[in-house]
Amino acid sequence: MAERIEQRLEDRVPELEQLERVGLFTRKEIRAVLRKASALEYKIQRRALRKEDFINYIQYEVNLLELIKKRRARIGYSFKKDEIEHSILHRVHSLFNRATGKWKDDVQLWLSHVAFCKQWNAKHQLSKVFSTMLAIHSNKPALWIMAAKWEMETRLSSESARHLFLRALRFHPECPKLYQEYFRMELMNAEKQRKEKKEFEQAKMDLGEFNYSDEILNGEMARIVYREASQKIKGVEFQLAVLSIAKLFDFTQDLQKEILESLQTKYADDPLTWDHMARRELELGSLQPTEHTTKQKKVSEVAQREERCCAVFDEAVRAVPTGDMWKCYITFCLERYNRKTNSEELKQKRLERTLSVFSKAHESSLLPEALYKQWLELLLDSSLSEKAVEVAEAATRHFSLSVETWQLRLGVLIQLKREDVTQCFEEAIKHVKSKGTLPLWTLWVEWSEGTNSKEDTEALYQRSLHATTPGESVTMKEMYLDWTYRNGGYKKVKRLFTSLCENRPFSLDFFRKMIQIEKEQESCKMLHLREYYERALREFGSTNTDLWLDYIKEELSHPQGKPENCGSIHWRAMKMLQGDLVENFVSKYTLLQTGHL
Protein backbone atom coordinates (compact mmCIF):
# COMPACT_ATOMS: atom_id res chain seq x y z
CA MET A 1 0.00 0.00 0.00
CA ALA A 2 2.83 2.39 0.89
CA GLU A 3 4.49 1.84 -2.49
CA ARG A 4 1.26 2.64 -4.30
CA ILE A 5 0.82 5.84 -2.29
CA GLU A 6 4.43 6.88 -2.95
CA GLN A 7 3.90 6.32 -6.67
CA ARG A 8 0.75 8.47 -6.68
CA LEU A 9 2.57 11.24 -4.79
CA GLU A 10 5.47 11.07 -7.27
CA ASP A 11 2.95 11.46 -10.11
CA ARG A 12 2.05 14.83 -8.59
CA VAL A 13 5.61 16.15 -8.68
CA PRO A 14 5.59 17.51 -12.29
CA GLU A 15 2.46 19.61 -11.73
CA LEU A 16 3.73 20.87 -8.36
CA GLU A 17 7.07 21.83 -9.91
CA GLN A 18 5.26 23.77 -12.61
CA LEU A 19 3.12 25.54 -9.97
CA GLU A 20 6.27 26.67 -8.18
CA ARG A 21 8.19 27.53 -11.34
CA VAL A 22 5.51 29.82 -12.77
CA GLY A 23 5.02 31.52 -9.40
CA LEU A 24 1.49 30.35 -8.60
CA PHE A 25 2.56 28.57 -5.37
CA THR A 26 5.55 29.01 -3.01
CA ARG A 27 7.89 26.20 -1.90
CA LYS A 28 6.22 26.18 1.54
CA GLU A 29 2.74 25.85 -0.01
CA ILE A 30 3.94 22.99 -2.25
CA ARG A 31 5.12 21.09 0.84
CA ALA A 32 1.78 21.70 2.57
CA VAL A 33 -0.05 20.33 -0.51
CA LEU A 34 2.13 17.20 -0.48
CA ARG A 35 1.52 16.60 3.24
CA LYS A 36 -2.25 16.97 2.85
CA ALA A 37 -2.28 14.80 -0.28
CA SER A 38 -0.29 12.10 1.51
CA ALA A 39 -2.77 12.03 4.42
CA LEU A 40 -5.73 11.87 2.04
CA GLU A 41 -4.13 9.12 -0.07
CA TYR A 42 -3.57 6.93 2.98
CA LYS A 43 -7.26 7.24 3.89
CA ILE A 44 -8.51 6.07 0.47
CA GLN A 45 -6.03 3.17 0.27
CA ARG A 46 -7.23 1.49 3.48
CA ARG A 47 -8.91 -1.88 3.42
CA ALA A 48 -12.11 -0.53 5.01
CA LEU A 49 -13.01 2.34 2.67
CA ARG A 50 -15.27 5.21 3.74
CA LYS A 51 -17.28 7.38 1.38
CA GLU A 52 -16.50 10.49 3.43
CA ASP A 53 -12.75 10.07 2.78
CA PHE A 54 -13.31 10.13 -1.00
CA ILE A 55 -15.61 13.14 -0.72
CA ASN A 56 -13.04 15.01 1.40
CA TYR A 57 -10.25 14.18 -1.09
CA ILE A 58 -12.37 15.35 -4.04
CA GLN A 59 -13.35 18.53 -2.22
CA TYR A 60 -9.68 19.27 -1.47
CA GLU A 61 -8.74 18.86 -5.14
CA VAL A 62 -11.65 21.06 -6.26
CA ASN A 63 -10.59 23.76 -3.78
CA LEU A 64 -7.04 23.49 -5.15
CA LEU A 65 -8.34 24.02 -8.68
CA GLU A 66 -10.32 27.07 -7.59
CA LEU A 67 -7.26 28.53 -5.84
CA ILE A 68 -5.12 28.04 -8.94
CA LYS A 69 -7.82 29.72 -11.04
CA LYS A 70 -7.91 32.76 -8.73
CA ARG A 71 -4.12 33.09 -8.65
CA ARG A 72 -3.91 32.85 -12.44
CA ALA A 73 -6.43 35.69 -12.68
CA ARG A 74 -4.48 37.76 -10.13
CA ILE A 75 -1.08 37.54 -11.85
CA GLY A 76 -2.48 37.31 -15.39
CA TYR A 77 -0.79 33.99 -16.23
CA SER A 78 -2.73 31.60 -18.47
CA PHE A 79 -0.15 29.10 -19.75
CA LYS A 80 0.82 25.53 -18.75
CA LYS A 81 -2.81 24.48 -18.17
CA ASP A 82 -2.26 21.05 -19.67
CA GLU A 83 0.59 20.31 -17.23
CA ILE A 84 -1.24 21.69 -14.15
CA GLU A 85 -5.08 21.71 -14.32
CA HIS A 86 -5.38 18.77 -16.71
CA SER A 87 -3.47 16.55 -14.28
CA ILE A 88 -5.67 17.56 -11.32
CA LEU A 89 -8.88 17.14 -13.34
CA HIS A 90 -7.79 13.66 -14.38
CA ARG A 91 -7.18 12.76 -10.73
CA VAL A 92 -10.60 14.07 -9.63
CA HIS A 93 -12.33 12.04 -12.35
CA SER A 94 -10.39 8.99 -11.21
CA LEU A 95 -11.50 9.55 -7.60
CA PHE A 96 -15.12 9.97 -8.67
CA ASN A 97 -14.92 6.79 -10.76
CA ARG A 98 -13.58 4.80 -7.79
CA ALA A 99 -16.22 6.23 -5.44
CA THR A 100 -19.16 5.64 -7.80
CA GLY A 101 -17.82 2.17 -8.55
CA LYS A 102 -17.80 1.35 -4.84
CA TRP A 103 -21.10 3.10 -3.92
CA LYS A 104 -23.14 2.63 -7.08
CA ASP A 105 -26.50 3.29 -5.42
CA ASP A 106 -25.57 6.77 -4.17
CA VAL A 107 -27.27 9.00 -6.76
CA GLN A 108 -25.98 12.15 -5.08
CA LEU A 109 -22.41 10.99 -5.71
CA TRP A 110 -23.16 10.53 -9.42
CA LEU A 111 -24.80 13.96 -9.59
CA SER A 112 -21.74 15.52 -7.92
CA HIS A 113 -19.58 14.04 -10.67
CA VAL A 114 -21.99 15.39 -13.30
CA ALA A 115 -21.87 18.87 -11.72
CA PHE A 116 -18.05 18.76 -11.64
CA CYS A 117 -17.88 17.81 -15.32
CA LYS A 118 -20.23 20.67 -16.23
CA GLN A 119 -18.28 23.17 -14.13
CA TRP A 120 -14.97 22.31 -15.82
CA ASN A 121 -16.47 21.76 -19.30
CA ALA A 122 -15.39 18.08 -19.44
CA LYS A 123 -17.89 17.13 -22.18
CA HIS A 124 -16.25 13.88 -23.22
CA GLN A 125 -15.97 12.70 -19.60
CA LEU A 126 -19.56 13.77 -18.83
CA SER A 127 -20.85 11.69 -21.71
CA LYS A 128 -19.17 8.64 -20.16
CA VAL A 129 -20.54 9.48 -16.71
CA PHE A 130 -24.10 9.73 -18.04
CA SER A 131 -23.71 6.45 -19.91
CA THR A 132 -22.49 4.55 -16.82
CA MET A 133 -24.97 6.20 -14.47
CA LEU A 134 -27.97 5.42 -16.67
CA ALA A 135 -26.88 1.81 -17.02
CA ILE A 136 -27.04 1.50 -13.21
CA HIS A 137 -29.93 3.87 -12.45
CA SER A 138 -32.17 3.22 -15.42
CA ASN A 139 -35.17 3.21 -13.05
CA LYS A 140 -34.95 6.99 -12.45
CA PRO A 141 -36.69 9.05 -15.20
CA ALA A 142 -35.23 12.33 -13.90
CA LEU A 143 -31.69 11.16 -14.75
CA TRP A 144 -32.69 10.27 -18.31
CA ILE A 145 -34.25 13.72 -18.71
CA MET A 146 -31.12 15.39 -17.34
CA ALA A 147 -28.88 13.51 -19.78
CA ALA A 148 -31.14 14.23 -22.78
CA LYS A 149 -31.36 17.93 -21.90
CA TRP A 150 -27.57 18.13 -21.75
CA GLU A 151 -27.25 16.49 -25.16
CA MET A 152 -29.81 18.89 -26.62
CA GLU A 153 -28.85 22.16 -24.94
CA THR A 154 -25.08 21.81 -24.47
CA ARG A 155 -23.90 19.44 -27.20
CA LEU A 156 -26.66 20.66 -29.56
CA SER A 157 -27.30 17.08 -30.62
CA SER A 158 -30.99 16.45 -31.15
CA GLU A 159 -30.24 12.93 -32.45
CA SER A 160 -28.48 11.93 -29.20
CA ALA A 161 -31.25 13.50 -27.09
CA ARG A 162 -33.92 11.68 -29.11
CA HIS A 163 -32.03 8.40 -28.74
CA LEU A 164 -31.86 8.86 -24.95
CA PHE A 165 -35.58 9.64 -24.69
CA LEU A 166 -36.46 6.56 -26.75
CA ARG A 167 -34.26 4.38 -24.52
CA ALA A 168 -35.83 5.92 -21.42
CA LEU A 169 -39.33 5.20 -22.70
CA ARG A 170 -38.45 1.54 -23.09
CA PHE A 171 -37.80 1.46 -19.34
CA HIS A 172 -40.67 3.82 -18.43
CA PRO A 173 -43.37 3.48 -21.11
CA GLU A 174 -46.02 5.24 -18.99
CA CYS A 175 -44.02 8.12 -17.46
CA PRO A 176 -45.83 11.44 -18.18
CA LYS A 177 -42.78 13.60 -17.40
CA LEU A 178 -40.61 11.74 -19.92
CA TYR A 179 -43.17 12.23 -22.69
CA GLN A 180 -43.57 15.92 -21.80
CA GLU A 181 -39.84 16.58 -21.97
CA TYR A 182 -39.48 14.52 -25.18
CA PHE A 183 -42.33 16.58 -26.67
CA ARG A 184 -40.62 19.80 -25.58
CA MET A 185 -37.29 18.65 -27.06
CA GLU A 186 -38.81 17.95 -30.47
CA LEU A 187 -40.42 21.40 -30.52
CA MET A 188 -37.15 23.04 -29.47
CA ASN A 189 -35.37 21.19 -32.27
CA ALA A 190 -37.99 22.35 -34.77
CA GLU A 191 -37.66 25.95 -33.57
CA LYS A 192 -33.84 25.79 -33.81
CA GLN A 193 -34.01 24.50 -37.38
CA ARG A 194 -36.58 27.14 -38.35
CA LYS A 195 -34.28 29.89 -37.05
CA GLU A 196 -31.27 28.41 -38.88
CA LYS A 197 -33.18 28.18 -42.13
CA LYS A 198 -34.44 31.74 -41.78
CA GLU A 199 -30.91 33.05 -41.18
CA PHE A 200 -29.57 31.17 -44.22
CA GLU A 201 -32.36 32.54 -46.38
CA GLN A 202 -31.73 36.08 -45.16
CA ALA A 203 -28.03 35.64 -45.99
CA LYS A 204 -29.10 34.29 -49.43
CA MET A 205 -27.00 31.15 -48.94
CA ASP A 206 -27.46 27.94 -50.89
CA LEU A 207 -29.40 25.39 -48.77
CA GLY A 208 -28.43 22.48 -51.02
CA GLU A 209 -26.15 20.77 -48.50
CA PHE A 210 -28.58 21.38 -45.59
CA ASN A 211 -31.61 19.14 -45.39
CA TYR A 212 -34.46 20.92 -43.61
CA SER A 213 -37.47 18.63 -43.58
CA ASP A 214 -40.82 20.44 -43.71
CA GLU A 215 -42.27 17.84 -41.33
CA ILE A 216 -39.69 18.57 -38.65
CA LEU A 217 -39.97 22.35 -39.21
CA ASN A 218 -43.75 22.15 -38.65
CA GLY A 219 -43.43 20.10 -35.47
CA GLU A 220 -44.58 16.77 -36.91
CA MET A 221 -42.11 14.86 -34.73
CA ALA A 222 -43.68 16.44 -31.65
CA ARG A 223 -47.12 15.50 -32.97
CA ILE A 224 -46.01 11.84 -33.27
CA VAL A 225 -44.70 11.94 -29.68
CA TYR A 226 -48.00 13.43 -28.50
CA ARG A 227 -50.13 10.82 -30.28
CA GLU A 228 -48.01 7.96 -28.96
CA ALA A 229 -48.19 9.37 -25.43
CA SER A 230 -51.96 9.88 -25.61
CA GLN A 231 -52.47 6.16 -26.25
CA LYS A 232 -50.51 5.19 -23.14
CA ILE A 233 -51.15 8.01 -20.67
CA LYS A 234 -54.72 8.75 -19.70
CA GLY A 235 -55.85 11.81 -17.80
CA VAL A 236 -56.58 15.44 -18.53
CA GLU A 237 -53.55 16.65 -16.52
CA PHE A 238 -51.14 15.25 -19.10
CA GLN A 239 -53.08 16.78 -21.99
CA LEU A 240 -53.03 20.19 -20.31
CA ALA A 241 -49.30 19.91 -19.53
CA VAL A 242 -48.52 19.13 -23.18
CA LEU A 243 -50.77 21.96 -24.35
CA SER A 244 -48.98 24.46 -22.08
CA ILE A 245 -45.65 23.37 -23.64
CA ALA A 246 -47.02 23.73 -27.17
CA LYS A 247 -48.19 27.29 -26.39
CA LEU A 248 -44.57 28.33 -25.84
CA PHE A 249 -43.87 27.94 -29.57
CA ASP A 250 -45.46 30.20 -32.18
CA PHE A 251 -45.66 27.60 -34.99
CA THR A 252 -47.83 25.05 -33.15
CA GLN A 253 -51.33 26.38 -33.82
CA ASP A 254 -52.43 23.18 -35.61
CA LEU A 255 -50.93 21.02 -32.88
CA GLN A 256 -52.66 23.05 -30.18
CA LYS A 257 -55.94 22.67 -32.04
CA GLU A 258 -55.50 18.88 -32.16
CA ILE A 259 -54.76 18.72 -28.41
CA LEU A 260 -57.81 20.87 -27.64
CA GLU A 261 -60.04 18.67 -29.78
CA SER A 262 -58.70 15.59 -28.00
CA LEU A 263 -59.42 17.24 -24.65
CA GLN A 264 -62.99 18.06 -25.56
CA THR A 265 -63.64 14.65 -27.10
CA LYS A 266 -62.03 12.30 -24.58
CA TYR A 267 -62.38 14.32 -21.36
CA ALA A 268 -65.60 16.26 -21.83
CA ASP A 269 -66.81 15.28 -18.35
CA ASP A 270 -63.63 16.30 -16.53
CA PRO A 271 -63.83 19.60 -14.56
CA LEU A 272 -60.24 20.48 -15.52
CA THR A 273 -61.18 20.42 -19.22
CA TRP A 274 -64.01 22.88 -18.66
CA ASP A 275 -61.78 24.98 -16.39
CA HIS A 276 -59.20 25.26 -19.16
CA MET A 277 -61.76 26.04 -21.84
CA ALA A 278 -63.27 28.77 -19.68
CA ARG A 279 -59.95 30.37 -18.78
CA ARG A 280 -58.97 30.23 -22.45
CA GLU A 281 -61.51 33.00 -23.07
CA LEU A 282 -59.31 35.32 -21.00
CA GLU A 283 -56.23 34.43 -23.06
CA LEU A 284 -58.05 34.84 -26.37
CA GLY A 285 -59.08 38.33 -25.37
CA SER A 286 -55.61 39.32 -24.19
CA LEU A 287 -54.08 38.35 -27.57
CA GLN A 288 -55.88 41.22 -29.29
CA PRO A 289 -53.93 44.50 -29.64
CA THR A 290 -54.70 46.93 -26.82
CA GLU A 291 -52.79 50.03 -28.00
CA HIS A 292 -54.48 53.44 -28.04
CA THR A 293 -57.34 52.37 -25.78
CA THR A 294 -58.66 54.33 -22.83
CA LYS A 295 -58.72 52.98 -19.29
CA GLN A 296 -62.50 52.77 -19.40
CA LYS A 297 -62.35 50.72 -22.59
CA LYS A 298 -59.74 48.38 -21.08
CA VAL A 299 -61.94 47.84 -18.03
CA SER A 300 -64.89 47.14 -20.32
CA GLU A 301 -62.86 44.61 -22.32
CA VAL A 302 -61.70 42.82 -19.13
CA ALA A 303 -65.30 42.69 -17.89
CA GLN A 304 -66.46 41.23 -21.22
CA ARG A 305 -63.73 38.57 -21.20
CA GLU A 306 -64.67 37.59 -17.65
CA GLU A 307 -68.33 37.39 -18.66
CA ARG A 308 -67.40 35.02 -21.49
CA CYS A 309 -65.42 32.87 -19.02
CA CYS A 310 -68.37 32.73 -16.67
CA ALA A 311 -70.70 31.78 -19.53
CA VAL A 312 -68.48 28.74 -20.19
CA PHE A 313 -68.41 27.92 -16.47
CA ASP A 314 -72.21 28.20 -16.27
CA GLU A 315 -72.46 25.70 -19.09
CA ALA A 316 -69.88 23.52 -17.33
CA VAL A 317 -71.79 23.25 -14.03
CA ARG A 318 -74.91 22.26 -15.98
CA ALA A 319 -73.03 19.62 -17.96
CA VAL A 320 -70.87 18.35 -15.05
CA PRO A 321 -72.76 19.08 -11.82
CA THR A 322 -70.09 18.01 -9.30
CA GLY A 323 -68.35 19.56 -6.30
CA ASP A 324 -65.04 19.68 -8.18
CA MET A 325 -66.63 21.61 -11.06
CA TRP A 326 -68.10 24.20 -8.70
CA LYS A 327 -64.72 24.42 -6.96
CA CYS A 328 -63.05 25.30 -10.27
CA TYR A 329 -65.69 27.96 -10.94
CA ILE A 330 -65.40 29.49 -7.47
CA THR A 331 -61.59 29.42 -7.57
CA PHE A 332 -61.69 31.36 -10.84
CA CYS A 333 -64.11 33.93 -9.39
CA LEU A 334 -61.98 34.40 -6.27
CA GLU A 335 -58.82 34.81 -8.35
CA ARG A 336 -60.46 37.54 -10.42
CA TYR A 337 -61.90 39.23 -7.31
CA ASN A 338 -58.47 39.30 -5.63
CA ARG A 339 -56.82 40.92 -8.66
CA LYS A 340 -56.04 44.59 -8.10
CA THR A 341 -58.05 47.08 -10.09
CA ASN A 342 -58.67 50.84 -9.86
CA SER A 343 -62.20 50.42 -11.16
CA GLU A 344 -64.70 50.24 -8.32
CA GLU A 345 -67.40 49.19 -10.77
CA LEU A 346 -65.35 46.18 -11.93
CA LYS A 347 -64.49 45.23 -8.35
CA GLN A 348 -68.15 45.39 -7.30
CA LYS A 349 -69.16 43.30 -10.32
CA ARG A 350 -66.55 40.67 -9.42
CA LEU A 351 -67.78 40.59 -5.80
CA GLU A 352 -71.42 40.15 -6.83
CA ARG A 353 -70.49 37.42 -9.29
CA THR A 354 -68.43 35.52 -6.70
CA LEU A 355 -71.16 35.69 -4.05
CA SER A 356 -73.73 34.59 -6.62
CA VAL A 357 -71.65 31.55 -7.61
CA PHE A 358 -71.17 30.61 -3.95
CA SER A 359 -74.95 30.78 -3.42
CA LYS A 360 -75.71 28.67 -6.50
CA ALA A 361 -73.20 26.00 -5.46
CA HIS A 362 -74.68 25.94 -1.96
CA GLU A 363 -78.25 25.72 -3.26
CA SER A 364 -77.28 22.74 -5.39
CA SER A 365 -75.76 21.10 -2.27
CA LEU A 366 -72.45 20.71 -4.11
CA LEU A 367 -70.33 23.35 -2.36
CA PRO A 368 -67.25 21.61 -0.86
CA GLU A 369 -66.82 22.00 2.89
CA ALA A 370 -63.45 23.74 2.58
CA LEU A 371 -64.96 26.58 0.50
CA TYR A 372 -67.48 27.64 3.16
CA LYS A 373 -64.62 29.32 5.04
CA GLN A 374 -63.74 31.49 2.03
CA TRP A 375 -67.41 32.33 1.50
CA LEU A 376 -67.82 33.44 5.12
CA GLU A 377 -64.62 35.51 5.02
CA LEU A 378 -65.87 37.24 1.87
CA LEU A 379 -69.26 37.98 3.45
CA LEU A 380 -67.69 39.37 6.63
CA ASP A 381 -65.23 41.50 4.65
CA SER A 382 -68.18 42.85 2.69
CA SER A 383 -70.08 43.68 5.95
CA LEU A 384 -72.85 41.19 5.11
CA SER A 385 -73.03 39.89 8.67
CA GLU A 386 -76.62 38.59 8.61
CA LYS A 387 -75.94 36.63 5.44
CA ALA A 388 -72.74 35.26 7.06
CA VAL A 389 -74.73 33.98 10.07
CA GLU A 390 -77.25 32.38 7.73
CA VAL A 391 -74.53 30.69 5.64
CA ALA A 392 -72.67 29.45 8.73
CA GLU A 393 -75.86 27.85 10.05
CA ALA A 394 -76.53 26.21 6.69
CA ALA A 395 -72.97 24.87 6.59
CA THR A 396 -73.40 23.11 9.95
CA ARG A 397 -76.64 21.57 8.69
CA HIS A 398 -74.79 20.11 5.69
CA PHE A 399 -71.71 19.04 7.66
CA SER A 400 -73.11 18.48 11.14
CA LEU A 401 -70.33 16.04 12.15
CA SER A 402 -67.47 18.34 11.13
CA VAL A 403 -65.63 20.06 13.98
CA GLU A 404 -64.04 22.53 11.52
CA THR A 405 -67.43 23.65 10.21
CA TRP A 406 -68.78 24.20 13.72
CA GLN A 407 -65.65 26.20 14.52
CA LEU A 408 -66.36 28.39 11.50
CA ARG A 409 -69.91 29.05 12.61
CA LEU A 410 -68.87 29.75 16.18
CA GLY A 411 -66.09 32.05 14.99
CA VAL A 412 -68.63 34.09 13.02
CA LEU A 413 -71.01 34.36 15.99
CA ILE A 414 -68.18 35.33 18.36
CA GLN A 415 -66.82 37.91 15.92
CA LEU A 416 -70.29 39.46 15.57
CA LYS A 417 -70.88 39.23 19.38
CA ARG A 418 -74.20 37.41 18.98
CA GLU A 419 -76.24 36.34 21.98
CA ASP A 420 -76.77 32.74 20.82
CA VAL A 421 -73.09 31.69 21.12
CA THR A 422 -73.69 29.43 24.14
CA GLN A 423 -76.68 27.81 22.45
CA CYS A 424 -74.55 27.14 19.36
CA PHE A 425 -71.77 25.59 21.48
CA GLU A 426 -74.30 23.27 23.10
CA GLU A 427 -75.64 22.30 19.69
CA ALA A 428 -72.13 21.62 18.38
CA ILE A 429 -71.18 19.39 21.33
CA LYS A 430 -74.45 17.46 20.88
CA HIS A 431 -73.79 16.76 17.17
CA VAL A 432 -70.06 16.04 17.23
CA LYS A 433 -68.71 12.86 18.78
CA SER A 434 -66.66 13.25 21.97
CA LYS A 435 -63.43 12.26 20.20
CA GLY A 436 -62.05 15.25 18.37
CA THR A 437 -64.08 17.90 20.21
CA LEU A 438 -61.01 19.47 21.88
CA PRO A 439 -60.92 22.47 19.46
CA LEU A 440 -64.57 23.23 20.35
CA TRP A 441 -63.93 23.05 24.09
CA THR A 442 -60.81 25.23 23.93
CA LEU A 443 -62.71 27.80 21.84
CA TRP A 444 -65.65 27.67 24.28
CA VAL A 445 -63.59 28.22 27.44
CA GLU A 446 -61.49 30.96 25.80
CA TRP A 447 -64.69 32.76 24.80
CA SER A 448 -66.18 32.20 28.26
CA GLU A 449 -63.09 33.65 29.97
CA GLY A 450 -63.68 36.99 28.26
CA THR A 451 -67.48 36.96 28.40
CA ASN A 452 -68.98 34.95 31.27
CA SER A 453 -68.55 35.07 35.04
CA LYS A 454 -65.75 33.18 36.82
CA GLU A 455 -68.26 30.70 38.22
CA ASP A 456 -69.66 29.88 34.78
CA THR A 457 -66.16 29.52 33.31
CA GLU A 458 -65.07 27.23 36.13
CA ALA A 459 -68.16 25.08 35.69
CA LEU A 460 -67.37 24.89 31.97
CA TYR A 461 -63.78 23.77 32.68
CA GLN A 462 -65.08 21.07 35.04
CA ARG A 463 -67.55 19.93 32.41
CA SER A 464 -64.87 19.81 29.70
CA LEU A 465 -62.70 17.42 31.77
CA HIS A 466 -65.50 14.85 31.74
CA ALA A 467 -66.69 15.49 28.19
CA THR A 468 -63.35 15.13 26.39
CA THR A 469 -61.38 11.92 25.89
CA PRO A 470 -58.56 11.21 28.39
CA GLY A 471 -55.90 12.22 25.85
CA GLU A 472 -57.66 15.53 25.07
CA SER A 473 -58.39 16.28 28.74
CA VAL A 474 -54.65 16.78 29.25
CA THR A 475 -54.81 20.09 27.34
CA MET A 476 -57.90 21.18 29.27
CA LYS A 477 -56.10 20.50 32.59
CA GLU A 478 -53.23 22.77 31.55
CA MET A 479 -55.64 25.55 30.51
CA TYR A 480 -57.71 25.10 33.70
CA LEU A 481 -54.60 25.35 35.88
CA ASP A 482 -53.40 28.50 34.13
CA TRP A 483 -56.82 30.19 34.27
CA THR A 484 -57.29 29.35 37.96
CA TYR A 485 -53.91 30.88 38.85
CA ARG A 486 -54.72 34.07 36.92
CA ASN A 487 -58.17 34.44 38.47
CA GLY A 488 -58.02 32.68 41.85
CA GLY A 489 -54.44 33.00 43.07
CA TYR A 490 -51.90 30.56 44.49
CA LYS A 491 -53.94 28.82 47.18
CA LYS A 492 -56.79 28.02 44.83
CA VAL A 493 -54.52 26.73 42.08
CA LYS A 494 -52.69 24.49 44.59
CA ARG A 495 -55.97 22.92 45.65
CA LEU A 496 -56.97 22.46 42.02
CA PHE A 497 -53.59 20.85 41.22
CA THR A 498 -54.03 18.33 44.03
CA SER A 499 -57.56 17.58 42.80
CA LEU A 500 -56.53 17.16 39.16
CA CYS A 501 -53.69 14.82 40.12
CA GLU A 502 -56.26 12.22 41.13
CA ASN A 503 -57.15 11.46 37.48
CA ARG A 504 -54.65 10.46 34.84
CA PRO A 505 -53.36 11.14 32.21
CA PHE A 506 -51.10 14.18 32.62
CA SER A 507 -48.67 16.09 30.44
CA LEU A 508 -45.18 17.18 31.45
CA ASP A 509 -46.22 20.82 30.85
CA PHE A 510 -48.96 20.37 33.46
CA PHE A 511 -46.35 19.72 36.15
CA ARG A 512 -43.88 22.28 34.82
CA LYS A 513 -46.61 24.93 34.91
CA MET A 514 -47.24 24.19 38.60
CA ILE A 515 -43.48 24.26 39.34
CA GLN A 516 -43.25 27.64 37.61
CA ILE A 517 -46.22 28.96 39.62
CA GLU A 518 -44.51 27.88 42.87
CA LYS A 519 -41.25 29.57 41.85
CA GLU A 520 -43.11 32.83 41.18
CA GLN A 521 -44.22 33.03 44.83
CA GLU A 522 -42.31 35.27 47.25
CA SER A 523 -42.07 32.46 49.79
CA CYS A 524 -41.22 29.66 47.35
CA LYS A 525 -40.97 26.48 49.40
CA MET A 526 -38.61 23.67 48.42
CA LEU A 527 -40.96 21.22 50.13
CA HIS A 528 -43.68 22.01 47.58
CA LEU A 529 -41.24 21.92 44.66
CA ARG A 530 -40.09 18.45 45.76
CA GLU A 531 -43.70 17.29 45.81
CA TYR A 532 -44.31 18.55 42.25
CA TYR A 533 -41.03 17.08 40.93
CA GLU A 534 -41.75 13.73 42.58
CA ARG A 535 -45.25 13.62 41.07
CA ALA A 536 -43.82 14.48 37.64
CA LEU A 537 -41.06 11.87 37.92
CA ARG A 538 -43.59 9.16 38.74
CA GLU A 539 -45.16 9.86 35.33
CA PHE A 540 -42.19 10.84 33.16
CA GLY A 541 -39.07 9.79 35.07
CA SER A 542 -38.27 6.88 32.75
CA THR A 543 -38.35 8.94 29.56
CA ASN A 544 -37.17 12.47 30.40
CA THR A 545 -33.57 13.28 31.42
CA ASP A 546 -34.13 17.05 31.71
CA LEU A 547 -36.67 16.55 34.50
CA TRP A 548 -34.06 14.79 36.67
CA LEU A 549 -31.45 17.44 35.93
CA ASP A 550 -33.87 20.27 36.76
CA TYR A 551 -34.66 18.55 40.08
CA ILE A 552 -30.94 18.34 40.89
CA LYS A 553 -30.41 21.99 39.90
CA GLU A 554 -33.28 22.99 42.18
CA GLU A 555 -31.72 21.19 45.17
CA LEU A 556 -28.39 22.91 44.45
CA SER A 557 -29.69 26.45 43.87
CA HIS A 558 -32.74 26.83 46.12
CA PRO A 559 -32.08 28.45 49.54
CA GLN A 560 -33.96 25.59 51.21
CA GLY A 561 -32.43 22.93 48.96
CA LYS A 562 -30.37 20.00 50.21
CA PRO A 563 -27.34 19.35 47.97
CA GLU A 564 -26.79 16.05 49.80
CA ASN A 565 -30.00 14.78 48.11
CA CYS A 566 -28.39 15.05 44.65
CA GLY A 567 -26.59 11.71 45.04
CA SER A 568 -29.78 9.79 45.72
CA ILE A 569 -31.61 11.62 42.87
CA HIS A 570 -28.75 10.67 40.52
CA TRP A 571 -28.90 7.04 41.66
CA ARG A 572 -32.69 6.90 41.11
CA ALA A 573 -32.34 8.45 37.65
CA MET A 574 -29.77 5.82 36.63
CA LYS A 575 -32.16 3.08 37.73
CA MET A 576 -35.28 4.56 36.17
CA LEU A 577 -34.17 5.94 32.78
CA GLN A 578 -34.41 3.62 29.78
CA GLY A 579 -31.90 2.69 27.06
CA ASP A 580 -29.69 5.43 25.61
CA LEU A 581 -31.23 8.00 27.95
CA VAL A 582 -28.88 6.80 30.72
CA GLU A 583 -25.81 7.77 28.68
CA ASN A 584 -27.43 11.07 27.75
CA PHE A 585 -28.17 11.78 31.42
CA VAL A 586 -24.59 10.95 32.49
CA SER A 587 -23.17 13.35 29.86
CA LYS A 588 -25.43 16.20 30.93
CA TYR A 589 -24.83 15.52 34.63
CA THR A 590 -21.07 15.70 34.04
CA LEU A 591 -21.50 19.05 32.28
CA LEU A 592 -23.61 20.25 35.21
CA GLN A 593 -20.92 19.28 37.72
CA THR A 594 -18.21 21.10 35.73
CA GLY A 595 -20.34 24.25 35.46
CA HIS A 596 -20.97 23.98 31.70
CA LEU A 597 -24.73 23.40 31.93
UniProtKB/TrEMBL annotation:
SMART domains: HAT (SM00386). GO terms for molecular function: snoRNA binding. It is found in: Nucleus, Nucleolus. The lineage of its organism: Eukaryota, Metazoa, Chordata, Craniata, Vertebrata. One of its GO terms (biological process) is maturation of SSU-rRNA from tricistronic rRNA transcript (SSU-rRNA, 5.8S rRNA, LSU-rRNA). It comes from the Eukaryota. It comes from Ptilonorhynchus violaceus. This is UTP6 protein. Belongs to the UTP6 family. Its main location: nucleus. InterPro entries: HAT (IPR003107), TPR-like_helical_dom_sf (IPR011990), Utp6 (IPR013949), UTP6_C (IPR056907), UTP6_N (IPR055347).
